[in-house]
Amino acid sequence: MTSMMDVGDTRLAYTDVGAGSPIVWLHGSGPGATGMSNFGGNLAAFEDHRNIVVDLPGWGRSSRPTTDEPLIFHAAERVCDAMTALGIERAHLVGNSYGGAVAMRLAMRHPERVDRLVLMAPGGVLPADAPPWPKGLEHLFAYMADEKPSRQAMAEFVRLMVFDESLATESLIDERYESSLRAHPELPIPPNFGDLTPDLHRVAAPTLLVWGREDQTVPLAWASKILEGIPNAELRVLPHCRHWVQYERAPEFNHIVSEFLRGGASAAVEG
């Protein structure tokens, strides 16, 4: 059940389920993305937590940002305000791609609000020679730039997100396509997401990076700068997996993240 709240100049959609120590789930920036489309299939494994699943500004049912501020910076402050409005003093943050960047920014600016941080192939930290963009980002930006994107363009995008293309089901493509038409991002291409690189050292929370080895959107090679910059970070790499780790490898993802949030070792593996 989606609820709505006003946080400053923004109306945010969110889902609030479960009870226990809170987790705030932050989705990626792909067309048709929402909090529940990214994480709805994972929540049953975290029912001993209070799960706050947000539609970030500009996606899903949340209002469009009207600001020249970098999108990551803008979204992080709205999420922090939403936590306050929901009576959450401190939470674990789990973020995928763009949502991972929002989680990092919140942890940099408000370290007292963040317990543990889980980042799946997060954005916001680019190598100096990033363009030309990886194939997944090229498709994402092309879709955003198209005033009337086709279902075929969505199908191509979804197939790039998973290693096992059988997971790119017709129903999933339809769901993402219909959602993208309801809330087509009105963003410059490439968007002004913002650069988190200079402040990585400010992330004090224990941080778990989770990456698909075959990611074609935020490549594994980009992980090194984040791993080196965040003082208390570790990396887990899942083979035969692309960008949607939490979807494509849900059982492993749920286990790894549950162990990490409980404070257990997550046996970093690089590959």
TrEMBL record:
Domain AB hydrolase-1 positions: 23-253
InterPro entries assigned to the protein according to its UniProt record, in alphabetical order: AB_hydrolase_1, AB_hydrolase_fold, AB_hydrolase_sf
GO cellular component: a single term: membrane
UniProt keyword annotation of Hydrolase present: yes
Claim: Thylakoid is one of the keywords in the record: no
Entry GO MF terms: hydrolase activity
Highest taxon above the source species: Bacteria
PANTHER family per record: AB HYDROLASE SUPERFAMILY PROTEIN YCLE (PTHR43798:SF31), MONOACYLGLYCEROL LIPASE (PTHR43798)
Protein name: Alpha/beta fold hydrolase
Source species of the chain: Streptomyces apricus
Lineage of source species: Bacteria, Bacillati, Actinomycetota, Actinomycetes, Kitasatosporales
